[in-house]
């Protein structure tokens, strides 16, 4: 029997299904009223349908490259939006692991969009998932992989996100993701990766660079990072401090 390729990896699907069941069971046993909100059952059904559509599109168009006859941006954004709503329910039901697992599924959808040259319009669950993964590891190889994913998401963010029109909100996902990309790159102590992440930060959030690199210099000294890493952070701090 041939194994069918799936748009979203099997392990992510299994994670989604397990988390969904826990959320459904917990919601049904709770006394929470959904009111006018979409219920977890409705959200899970919608996401399941999107995953089916993603498989169908991959089978018809290949696993990589632009899909010309469907609005993959809209499909992906709706799927990630529904997953974000489901993560909200998990949080409301006090299911932190299920929330993380739902956000991992959103990251899988983001990978699908990137493979098909789409753009990402909703970043919050992606930022949460990547941050949680980075906080759980010290392994340099894993950190490099996470930094690569962060860079890919920043690159494929929608123009409306890159415009960064909500600069008065310090908690906006675009800002946090740029910071996390630079932080995780620093933790790898790979100066080539750091240079790429720092250039991205300078391009996207120049107004935040002086404070960021000042704190980076301090943290690198506390963590006893290698001398080239400390020197690079100091160089960038000096550069940005003179610009402001």
Description:
The protein is 71% helix and 0% strand. By secondary structure, the chain is mainly α. The radius of gyration is 20 Å and the shape is globular. The mean pLDDT is 92.
Q: What percent of residues are in strands?
A: under 5%
Mean of residue pLDDT values: 92
Classify the secondary structure makeup into a structural class: mainly alpha
Query: What's the helix count?
Result: 11
Indicate the radius of gyration in whole angstroms: 20 Å
SSE pattern, N- to C-terminal: HHHHHHHHHHH
Tally the beta strands: 0
Percent in helix = over 70%
**Residue windows where pLDDT falls under 50 for at least 5 positions:** none
Main sheet specs: none
Shape: globular
Oligomer: single chain
Span between N and C termini? Answer: 64 Å
């Amino acid at each position: 029997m041939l194994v069918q390729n799936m748009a979203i990896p099997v392990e992510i699907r299994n994670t989604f299904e397990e988390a969904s069941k826990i959320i459904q069971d917990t919601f049904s046993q709770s006394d929470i009223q959904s009111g006018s909100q979409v219920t977890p059952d409705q959200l899970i059904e919608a996401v399941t349908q999107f995953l089916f559509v993603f498989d169908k599109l991959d089978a018809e168009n290949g696993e990589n490259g632009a899909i010309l006859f469907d609005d993959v941006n809209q499909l992906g954004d709706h799927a990630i939006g529904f997953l974000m709503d489901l993560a909200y329910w998990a949080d409301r039901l006090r299911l932190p692991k299920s929330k993380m697992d739902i956000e991992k599924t959103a990251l899988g959808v983001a990978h699908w969009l990137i493979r098909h040259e789409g753009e990402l319009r909703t970043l919050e669950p992606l930022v949460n998932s990547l941050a949680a993964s980075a906080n759980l590891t010290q392994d340099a190889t894993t950190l490099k992989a996470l930094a690569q994913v962060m860079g890919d998401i920043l690159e494929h963010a929608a123009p409306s996100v890159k415009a960064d029109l909500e600069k008065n909100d310090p908690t906006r996902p675009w800002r946090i993701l740029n910071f996390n990309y630079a932080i995780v790159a620093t933790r790898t102590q790979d100066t080539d990766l750091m240079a790429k992440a720092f250039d991205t930060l300078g391009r996207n959030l120049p107004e935040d660079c002086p404070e960021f690199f000042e704190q980076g210099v301090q943290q690198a000294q506390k963590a006893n990072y290698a001398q080239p890493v400390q020197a690079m952070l100091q160089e960038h701090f000096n550069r940005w401090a003179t610009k402001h």
